[in-house]
Design brief:
This protein has 280 residues and is of the alpha/beta class. The protein has eleven helices and ten strands. Helices cover 46% and strands 14% of the residues.
Length: 280
């Protein structure tokens, strides 16, 4: 398979944005502090609806489950209509949107989204697309130019060597990025079952969390662990140095809204127990 870099695919549009497109949300230091509070307190828990999930019924169910279960954030595809839907269905949950195209954030910020995220990138690897550190830095700068007042999370591609991931995280911290999110290897296979399989699948994200949290110590940029997270592995991520976790298929893959809400509550309780144990 021919491997393409993101820069190769998007070179023609890399500078195709203008200051006139800048989003101007009603935000400020107090808004920023409130959105980031769960991260600062080491208890951020976002439910991931999916980067490519534009199904309103599905997103509505996931949003309601996130609200009923006590999640702090809800991660959506970059669509302003989904932002409005999520805010209506789960008004107490902070909304995020994820995309790899900075221009897609603008209408979402104007619609009132609370936070934006560059990534995840793993959905594009199967097509041969790869994102270099330079690609990520360019995307970050473009996003900050368009949405300068909105809290920003950036995913670190797991295909980068761990040393390069750490260096990229430091560069992003230097740009003022609020949160760095890990990206595990979602296609990892295991011969194990049950708890052992869950831990093995989360191992890449946990390893990245450990390395990145130590590289970023004292830099003001926080770490969110995602990929392979559930009620067993999410507490491990906090022990590894994360200030938050992102959980996707362990919740969205369930077949009913009630089951999703129950799973959210299980993860919230697991994180709370872990936090108490860490404090003692």
């Amino acid at each position: 398979m021919r491997v393409l870099t993101f820069a190769t695919v998007c070179m023609a549009s890399a500078s195709a944005f203008h200051i006139s497109m800048m989003a101007t949300p009603a935000s400020g230091p107090r808004f920023h502090k409130e959105i980031m509070r769960p991260f600062r307190e080491g208890r951020a828990f976002k439910v991931i609806a999916g980067l490519t999930n534009f199904d309103r019924d599905s997103v509505g169910r996931i949003a309601r489950a996130a609200g009923m279960g006590g999640a702090t954030h809800l991660d959506l595809a970059a669509d302003p209509e989904l932002v409005a839907l999520a805010k209506a269905q789960a008004p107490r949950v902070r909304t995020m949107v994820s995309a790899i195209d900075p221009e897609k954030f603008v209408p979402c910020v104007e619609a009132g989204v609370d936070m934006i995220e560059l990534g995840n990138f793993d959905a594009f690897y199967s097509s041969g697309l790869r994102f270099s550190s330079l690609d990520i830095l360019d995307l970050t700068k473009r996003t900050q130019a368009l949405c300068p007042r909105t809290p920003l999370s950036v995913t670190i591609p797991h295909v980068l060597a761990m040393e390069e991931q750490a260096q990229l995280a430091l560069s992003l911290a230097g740009l003022g990025v609020d949160v760095i999110q890990t990206e595990g290897a979602p296609s990892i296979s295991t011969m194990s079952t049950g708890l052992t399989a869950a831990i093995e699948k989360a191992a890449p994200a946990l390893a990245a969390t450990y390395v990145l949290s130590r590289a970023l110590a004292g830099k003001g940029t926080l770490v969110m662990a995602a990929s392979g997270m559930n009620e067993v592995t999410a507490p491990m991520a906090l022990v590894s140095g994360a200030q938050g976790v992102g959980v996707g298929t362990a919740i969205s893959g369930l077949d009913s809204e009630a089951a999703m809400a129950t799973k959210v509550r299980e993860i919230v309780r697991a994180l709370q127990r872990n936090k108490v144990q860490m404090q003692h």
